[in-house]
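This part of the workshop introduces the protein records we will be handling. The question running through the whole workshop is how a given chain folds. To make this concrete, we reproduce a full record directly below:
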Amino acid sequence: MKSARRQARELAVQGLYEWQLADTERAAIIDHLGTQPHFMRADRAFLEELLKGVMTERESLDQRLSVLIDRPLTQISPVEHAILWLASYELVHFPETPFRVILNEAIDLAKRFGGTDGHKYVNGVLDRLVAQERPEERQRPVRQKTS
């Protein structure tokens, strides 16, 4: 079963996709997302924070991303752009969430909703963003689980 935060991220990607294509207001997007079957299992507060944060900080997120990508942002698919916004926002504003969790979630979202190799592109861009935004955390060794 998917966690409430994962459900929120999936819904946020769908909402950001709608926002890009139709320029829909946040309240209308949340109303629309409320019709999705898994909406009730999502962390609604987290979903609303993600949508509000990305919509408010879109320009600064795009500035961060534009120096890390190999093409104009207008040439990135709307789905992958939404995923990059979402993960970028989390990397900057949720330092308590390990960057590996954010990257794994973004890659899973790209595999589920993006193009064939979109997850590879998302991974590469976010890996470079982590180097900029969380260099100390990136340098820490991964702790191995013991049996």
Observations:
- The chain has one domain: 4-136.
- Helices lie at 4-22, 26-33, 44-66, 78-93, 99-113, 118-133, 135-139.
- The mean pLDDT is 94.
- Residues 10 and 27 are 17 Å apart (CA to CA).
